TrEMBL record:
It comes from the Bacteria. One of its GO terms (cellular component) is DNA polymerase III complex. The gene is dnaX. SMART domains: AAA. It holds the Pfam family DNAX_ATPase_lid. This is DNA-directed DNA polymerase. It catalyses: DNA(n) + a 2'-deoxyribonucleoside 5'-triphosphate = DNA(n+1) + diphosphate. Belongs to the DnaX/STICHEL family. InterPro entries: AAA+_ATPase (IPR003593), ClpA/B (IPR001270), DNA_pol3_clamp-load_cplx_C (IPR008921), DNA_pol_III_gamma-3 (IPR022754), DNA_pol_III_sug/sutau_N (IPR012763), DNA_Rep/Repair_Clamp_Loader (IPR050238), HLD_clamp_pol_III_gamma_tau (IPR045085), P-loop_NTPase (IPR027417). The lineage of its organism: Bacteria, Bacillati, Bacillota, Clostridia, Lachnospirales. Its EC number is 2.7.7.7. GO terms for biological process: DNA-templated DNA replication. Keywords: ATP-binding, DNA replication, DNA-directed DNA polymerase, Metal-binding, Nucleotide-binding, Nucleotidyltransferase, Transferase, Zinc. CDD domains: AAA (cd00009), HLD_clamp_pol_III_gamma_tau (cd18137).
Length: 546
């Protein structure tokens, strides 16, 4: 006998086997026991929640010769004939392929004949929202006043597409998404019947990936078992088969994002791609991980809000203390926009990399929710001493204004604003000044160039001592800036605004065979470089970074 898929093999045969739809099952059983059966039912809900299954059970129950507590006995001749598909009393119609007026007219002609056996003739119309407007109009009169022996069961996943005239003639039942716990318990029960060894953590992940659909869960489980036939199905094997990523990877990537480690986040993404993980699934799972973090951050009882082990919950609590809720919502927004774009994109990796760069460098965005993240980054740099706060100048007791309201500058201010004469040839000193004010020069740039300059080092050629500024990038993404001559001009202009002189700029990539600079490159030092090239002692005043 050929193999039968799990979702077909274990399809519920009575109301007691249906999981997660107790509110519908109880109502239908009570109607059958009290003989208060309606003439038209509308089953609405997402895929895999049991609409067609309950419709078939109801069709058997209303015709069963010996019903048991409102459920079919599945042993009488009527029940067996319906199960085998040989009964003329139950007619299943796929409205997706039979959606014309002529198909509905055939139903109207058939309802005139009584069932050959059993009490009711049941019409199950699946995907009823696919019927044309003319077909719906043809169905109206029959649906409103059918013969006493006819029952219509309409099933749909998109109830908003059904005309209100049809809705008002039916008893509507909304099928809920099945909870993760219910799906996991059902899968565990079925695996015990099948004598398959499956790890509990693997069952939990499949139940989460099913997104409320029991059929999807059984299909995913069937797929994983087939791939590792005869072996124990573990959590790692499920991740490998479904192309998913472990939560520890998400945790590590989030910490790299909080540190602003763009290159580290890109490397982690590259490892994920090399392992063969699917980027769309990665984006979806990362959004889910961020959502769980937000729940832990904002809930009084995170144990009830998030389904996670004690170890994962402790790690998530630690990460929640490292960032604010506004920052989490910004991350979720960026990746939610990405999930819509990546579905039909040809360059999925590039889109994911851009999203990660946005998360690592909030300065690239100017909207409100990115300001919280930018403030967080600045506060962390201040705590680590990477940025020196500018001391507040003393405010004079008497403001220097004339009687006419004209501002009179102090003598000291006039002296400070006088431009200092710079030597005609002081290239080492100029490079030193560029080195000391590198951060303020970077702030004059924008976009990817600014992002790459934050991870660069200004250097000079120690062999020649020429006034050439070599900018050595450490991030391989900077190759785009190196290849773009406009970026070099932007950097030159930023330096010109700072020192008032033109400096020749050459941008190179560290450890790159195609873009190596001179062999004598060294980081710009201070007085000894000046003495070496000018042969005299010069005292260089400390110039604080702006």
């Amino acid at each position: 006998m050929s193999y039968t898929a799990l979702y077909r093999k274990f399809r519920p045969q009575d109301f007691e086997d249906v999981k997660g739809q107790e509110h519908i099952v109880t109502t239908l059983k009570n109607q059958i026991k009290a003989d208060r059966i309606g003439h038209a039912y509308l089953f609405c809900g997402t895929r895999g929640t049991g609409k067609t299954t309950i419709a078939k059970i109801l069709a058997r129950a209303v015709n069963c010769e010996h019903p048991v507590d409102g459920s079919p006995c599945n042993t009488c001749s009527t029940c067996r004939a319906i199960q085998e598909g040989t009964s003329m009393n139950v007619i299943e119609i796929d409205a997706a392929s039979n959606n014309g007026v002529d198909n509905i007219r055939e139903i109207r002609e058939e309802v005139a004949y009584r069932p050959t056996e059993g009490r009711y003739k049941v019409y199950i119309i699946d995907e009823v929202h696919m019927l044309s407007t003319g077909a719906f109009n043809a169905l109206l009169k029959t649906l409103e006043e059918p013969p006493s022996y006819v029952i219509f069961i309409l099933a749909t996943t998109e109830a908003h597409k059904i005309p209100i005239t049809i809705l008002s003639r039916c008893q509507r039942y909304d099928f809920r998404r099945i909870t993760q716990d219910t799906i996991a318990a059902r899968l565990t029960e079925l695996m015990e019947k099948e004598n398959n060894d499956v790890e509990e953590k693997a069952i939990r992940y499949i139940a989460k990936a099913a997104d409320g659909s029991m059929r999807d869960a059984l299909s995913l489980l069937d797929q994983c078992i087939a791939f590792y036939l005869g072996e124990k199905l573990t959590y790692e094997k499920v991740l490998e088969n479904l192309g998913a990523v472990d939560t520890e990877i998400f945790s590590g990537m989030l910490r790299q994002i909080l540190e602003g480690n763009t290159s580290g986040a890109i490397r982690t993404l590259e490892e994920i791609i090399i392992q063969g993980r699917e980027l769309g699934q990665f984006v979806t799972d990362f959004i889910w991980y961020l959502r769980n973090l937000l729940l832990v951050k904002t809930s009084d009882n995170p144990e009830e809000a998030v389904d996670a082990s004690a170890e994962n919950l402790a790690r998530m609590r630690e990460e929640c203390g490292m960032l604010e809720a506004e920052t989490l919502m910004r991350y979720i927004r960026i990746f939610s926009e990405l999930s819509n774009q990546i579905r039909y994109a040809s360059q999925k990796r590039v889109l994911v990399e851009i999203a990660l760069i946005k998360l690592c460098q909030p300065v690239m965005e100017t909207n409100l929710d990115s300001l919280y993240d930018r403030v967080r980054v600045l506060e962390e740099k201040l705590e680590k001493g990477l940025i020196q706060p500018v001391p507040m100048t003393q405010v004079p007791e008497k403001l220097p204004y004339s009687a006419e309201g004209t501002y009179i500058p102090f003598r000291e201010e006039i002296q400070e604003t006088q431009p200092e004469r710079k030597p005609e040839k002081a290239a080492p000193e100029d490079l030193q000044y560029v080195k000391k004010n590198w951060n303020s020069i970077i702030r004059e740039t924008r976009g990817l160039l600014q992002q790459m300059l934050l991870e660069s080092t200004p250097k000079y050629d120690g062999n020649t001592g020429e006034p050439v500024l070599y900018v050595e990038f450490r991030n391989f993404l900077a190759q785009t800036c190196i290849d773009n001559p406009q970026d070099a001009e932007i950097l030159k202009e930023a330096i010109r605004k700072k020192i008032g002189k033109d400096v020749e700029v050459k941008m190179i990539l560290k450890n790159s065979e195609a873009a190596k600079g001179p062999a004598g490159l060294a980081e710009i030092s201070v007085d000894d470089l000046i003495r070496q090239n000018i042969n005299m002692d010069i005292t260089v005043e400390n110039m604080d970074d702006e």
